[in-house]
Amino acid sequence: MINSTIRILLTEDQKLMRVGLKSLFEEHPELEIIAEAQSGKEAIEKYKTIHPDITLMDIGLPDMSGIEAVKKILEADAKAKVIILTSHLSENEVIDALHAGACAYVMKDINTEILKMIIKTVKDGAMWLDPQAVPILREKNCGVVPPRQMSRAMFKEQHANLTQREYEVLKLVVDGKSNNEIAQELTISEHTAKAHVCNIIQKLVVDDRTQAAVKALKEGLV
User: Fold this and answer.
1) What is the pTM of this model?
2) Do residues 82 and 67 touch, judged by C-beta distance below 8 A?
3) 190 in a structural domain
4) Co-location of 64 and 162 in the same domain
């Protein structure tokens, strides 16, 4: 039987954060933290020893930047898949992390179900940007994310199968909002919000709201 478990190296200097992530992943047996590192140097050494499927990397480490650690890991293994998981959101850090070779830039306040999906899609070869990071890259026009202002007319032309209201709901789904929170945000009933989410899932040809959020971000719908 083929082992489908995704093996993860967690690099985080804060013990509370490490404990929290380990507890989270215990609920998802397909995700396994096989090693932990508290510094960049330790992460590099452990990566070379265990060759994890995914490395979760904080930026603020005690000995070096997590971005520098990403560079070193990629120098050792060009196929390494590193996800930046951080509370930092500066222009330089976002751009430098992606230029260093990180496959994803994720804020620590991410919805847990979306984090789980990000890990799986990165493992399969995808890239992912936190919605909070996208405007930074578009404003800088640095070539990582194409600049775009999607007007309502352009939206209808490119994604005519979604209504404008469904587009608004989709943006809230990406933000990790529940049906109840979507209903309050848009001043609609929870039943209507649920119906919109179901329609979005069907139109995007995905299995659930998490996959819809990931697809929306990967394809630049939001």
Assistant:
1) 0.67
2) no
3) yes
4) no
